[in-house]
Amino acid sequence: MFLSGKTTPRLGIDLAGGTSITLKAKSEAGKPDAINPTNMNTAVSIIERRVNGLGVSEAEVQTQGREHIIVNIPKGTNDEQAREQVGTTAQLYFRQVLAVAGATPEPGTGSGSPTPAPSGKSGEGDKPSGSATPSATAEPTPSASATTQGRAVPGAVTKDETPSPSASASGKPDASPSPDPSASAATSELEKKFAALECKPGEEQSDEPAAKPDEPTVACSVEGDAKYILGPAEVEGTDVKDAKGVFDPQRGIWIVQLGFTDKGAKKFATTTGKLATQQAPQNQFAITLDGRVQSAPSVSTTIANGSAEISGSFNRESAQDLANILSYGALPLAFSEDSVTTVTAALGSEQLKAGLIAGAIGLALVIIYLVAYYRGLALIALVSLLVSGILTYTIMVLLGEAINFALNLPAVCGAIVAIGITADSFIVYFERIRDEIREGRTLRPAVERAWPRARRTILVSDFVSFLAAAVLFLVTVGKVQGFAFTLGLTTLLDVVVVFLFTKPVMTLMARTKFFSGGHPWSGLDPQRLGVQPPLRRTRRAAPAPLDTKEA
């Protein structure tokens, strides 16, 4: 524990404070039976991976009832970012950009490129013009323009390009954009929606109702600095197999690597092949989540191997953020944020204090009982309890680092209950020893003869306790699992302490005069145990031999 540098366990939301978010599943048109246990459990798994993928320690995601999901995010460095991603729970789509308009990109924006990664090798450095450059494998490299936050900003022009006809010279949206009718299925109604759509940079936009995957739509960028006409969904989020943000040491930049399923790879190859023949901005595909464009890189060649990389002016956080969206953005249901509750650290500290007081009271009662009934033997029991407590605390700290185990209030309760379970094992052994003494044996043989019978009873008792904890852990969710986990852990430690500490110490104590001599305060006083002292037979004096002479 000390070598790891961590000396305190991780605390759950009810002790350390944090945010609790309640999500409600929404019924979608044409899918009356979409809200079912299978889809809800799938959504829980994806949301949990999304939140924990941000590095949030022990985020807790569970269903409640038929249509609600509870997300508990302990207070930490990334809890606000996790809350934003939890609220972003619509399906992920890849759509073709048909037209774009927006504010002029801020100075200092960089350019980057999503590049195919056929053999895991990275491409060469990106050119400022955003044109395709050959990669290390001599294959062409699709290009994109990205802000310093790592978001692609279609419509940004370079010195040798002209602005898109859908954006005015001032950079503000035109009243009547004119996307190429041969490259898009945009109707006059769609153009009206596009003209009426307002996207404000730096401000949260109200989410539009999610469009059907097979229909074109309009959308704002996630930053609000651009708006788009988008074609039907070409690739769905479920077609993405994995994505991760990694640092490329050769180019000294952060990139996002993504891979597709076999089915998704075919779709992506068809999509990129079609986009590669188009002119900007129709050679770009928009990655949309909750109807907002997360990124929109351009393509200049077919990516047919199911692997690609998106590069640009990413930093570590933005690259991992986009990777999380790509990896875990596809949910089988749409959700709305029903309620948000914040637990302060002050309230958590009060609950922890109350739990520790309860544990101290329980331990004090056990000590009083042991001292009153077992006297000197109580010392062995108390030292064994201390060893068990140290081991429990140490393992909780190490598990917090290893598997993000968080100590919550029910887990504290489980540790309190374990005091009684551990003390029970000592009592079984002590009573067996006293039974042997009552049968007239001295202490040292009594200790050795009592152990096999006590050992069997202790193992059976601990097995039942562990079985109950295991069943409780498997059939429950949320905080109750913390109670079951701690109870099972301390039950296993009880076996370790009794076998490797209590029994050897008792063997050593049996050799001391205080215990072996049956001192009144040893707890093994024969008279106090009701042992009758053994009968002593007096030897009669032998009769004097007869003196035959005298006789």
Task: Please work out how many helical segments DSSP would assign.
Answer: 12
Radius of gyration: 36 Å
Could you name the ranges where pLDDT drops below 50 across 5 or more consecutive residues? Answer: 103-177, 181-186, 203-209, 534-538
How many individual β-strands? 17
* Average pLDDT metric: 74
Percent helix: 25-40%
Structural domains: how many: 2
Question: Strand arrangement, largest sheet?
Answer: 5-10-9-14-13
The fraction of residues in strands falls at: 15-25%
- Amino-to-carboxy terminus distance: 94 Å
Helix and strand content put the structural class at alpha+beta
Order of helices and strands: EHEHEEHEEEEHEEEEHEEEHEHHEHHHH
The major sheet is characterized as: 5 strands, mixed, barrel
Inertia-based shape = elongated
How do you describe this structure in short?
With 551 residues, the chain is of the alpha+beta class. It is 40% helix and 19% strand.
Main features:
Multidrug efflux transporter AcrB transmembrane fold; 551 residues; five-stranded mixed beta barrel; alpha+beta; 2 domains
